[in-house]
Design a protein that fits this description.
With 491 residues, the chain is mostly helical. The chain has 19 helices and no strands. The protein has helices at 9-14, 22-54, 58-86, 88-107, 112-140, 144-175, 180-183, 185-199, 213-232, 240-260, 270-274, 276-306, 311-339, 342-362, 369-395, 404-439, 444-464, 466-473, 478-482. Helix 4 packs antiparallel against helix 5, helix 12 (276-306) runs antiparallel to helix 17 (444-464) and helix 14 packs antiparallel against helix 18 (466-473).
């Protein structure tokens, strides 16, 4: 990392790290994170009603989810670099306004094609919005206990937003219409733009700010191929379409790494991911994304299909996980400076896996929520809190401000790709288990529960892998969490 010239008194006063209202700014950024996270699950609740209303096929229904993930996952690194070079405030505002417009188009959709186009636009603008928001947070809280508290809030929302989306989606679908599961983003975005405009200070990278066109093309094509390939894996792993796109994605990303190592202005500087601790954090983010999305998906199915819960009740049943995260987050933020990041990031996956294994062991067709589900959901929330509170902090620790946007995008990209991989893997194991159970003479609901149990086991196994990674790779000390960064560049 290079050193920067000392800031003048005027520059120092205007730097985001010296923002007198930065806790209000954190509220705006957290609202943004909540909108992006809950949008993934709120639409899932609305899909059955939207399918009937628009006359969608099952394949089109799947594309409503896939096309968002495709645009979001493939464009994240480009969005991060746009934030660094064009300006994080500008990129944040454009992403927020664009996301609101796309949500309005989707909410007013009168055809399948209109809804799919809106979802693609949502993903593209989310790829601008998410890294810009996290980069603003990173440079506004560059070090110390305030940074730990800020990232604890951000992490708690990242972990609990999915469950909030299930509840809000259930309420809106049942008492309004599926259209409002998209239209609800408009007032949220309006509040964020109006409140954020006077609060957010512009910052951007200086020095070499040329865009890496070859790298951009390679990584967008590579990530899109991977996301699409894993989405197709739900229909079969050995299909030519699945294997072809997965292989193409791997080849393109390998070529991308080769190009990035040789260019003077890389889209993703390899120093960002090659650092041992940050690389470990990115792997953990991928595994958490895989387990969380896969696990919550089948937990929702269990509530609605087997226990016959309404959409609202399914959302309420998921809330204890969110409440647990919200309770644990401030406690962890206080003890993190004393214990460091390694301990909670090692213990957290074990507790989360125990919760998923509990669900796999005890869920039944006529099960009791209080005894067979609630303890597992609470353990899952405790484990996720141990991960989410330090994860973003560790993943962005020591990153040069020049690379704040693209480093933030790399974290989001890891979680997004992890979610795609996890959903495809867990769905494949679930389907195989249901088929085996039916062949053995099980009743339909019993076969589904057998499938859900297998899904929870694999989700638990995935997140458990994060424990040894954290133990051996996460080397951020207590001092590292509190020390100031070495580099400050202002735009």
């Amino acid at each position: 990392m290079t050193s920067a010239a000392p800031l003048s008194p005027l520059e120092a006063a205007d730097h985001p790290a010296n923002h007198p209202r930065r806790w209000w700014l954190l509220a705006v950024i957290s609202l943004t994170q909540l909108m992006v996270v809950l949008d993934g699950t709120i639409v899932n609740i609305a899909l059955p009603a939207a399918q009937i209303d628009l006359g969608m096929s099952d394949g089109d229904r799947t594309w409503v989810v896939t096309i968002y993930a495709l645009a979001f996952g493939s464009l994240l690194l480009l969005g991060g670099r746009i934030a660094d070079y064009w300006g994080r405030k500008r990129t944040f505002m454009l992403g927020m306004i664009g996301f609101a417009v796309a949500s309005g188009i989707g909410g007013l959709a009168t055809s399948t094609e209109m809804l799919l186009a809106a979802r693609g636009l949502q993903g593209a603008f989310a790829a601008l919005l998410a890294p810009a928001a996290l980069a603003i947070l990173t440079i506004t809280f560059p070090s110390g206990k305030d940074r730990i508290k800020a990232f604890a809030v951000f992490g708690a929302i990242a972990g609990g937003g999915a469950a909030i989306g299930l509840l809000l989606g259930g309420v809106l679908t049942e008492y309004a219409s599926w259209h409002w599961c998209l239209l609800v983003n408009i007032p949220i975005a309006a509040v964020a733009v109006i409140a954020g405009w006077p609060l957010i200070r512009e910052s951007r990278a200086h020095g070499d700010t040329r865009y890496d066109l070859p790298g951009t093309i390679l990584v967008v094509a590579g990530l899109a191929s991977l996301v699409f390939g894993f989405a197709q894996a739900e229909n079969g792993w050995v299909r030519a379409e699945t294997l072809g796109f997965l292989a193409l994605g791997v080849v393109l990303l390998l070529v991308f790494v080769w190009v990035e190592a040789r260019t003077n202005h890389p889209l993703l500087p390899l120093r960002v991911v090659a650092h041992k601790t940050r690389g470990g954090a990115f792997l953990v983010a991928m595994l958490v994304g895989a387990a969380l999305l896969g696990g919550l998906l089948f937990l929702t199915f269990y509530f609605q299909i087997v226990l016959a819960y309404s959409p609202i009740m399914a959302g309420v049943a998921s809330l204890p996980m969110t409440v647990t995260i919200m309770i644990c987050a401030p406690i962890l933020s206080k003890v993190l400076p004393q214990v460091g990041a390694r301990l909670p990031m090692t213990v957290g996956p074990i507790i989360a896996a125990a919760g998923l294994f509990y669900l796999a062991t005890f869920v039944t067709v006529d099960g009791s929520y209080a005894t067979q589900v609630l303890p597992g959901v609470i353990m899952l929330g405790m484990g996720l809190a141990c991960l989410f509170v330090p994860l973003q902090n560790v993943a962005l620790s020591g990153v040069d401000e020049h690379d704040a946007g693209v480093a933030s995008a790399a974290v989001s990209s890891a979680q997004q790709i992890g979610g795609s991989i996890g959903t495809a893997l867990i769905t494949a194991f679930y389907a195989a288990a249901v088929t085996t159970s039916v062949a053995a003479g099980a009743e339909p609901l019993e076969a589904l529960v057998d499938g859900y149990s297998v899904a929870f086991v694999w989700a638990g196994a995935l997140i458990l892998c994060a424990a040894p990674i954290s133990f051996f790779l996460i080397k951020v000390t207590k001092k590292d969490l509190l020390d100031s960064p070495d580099v400050v560049h202002m735009g």
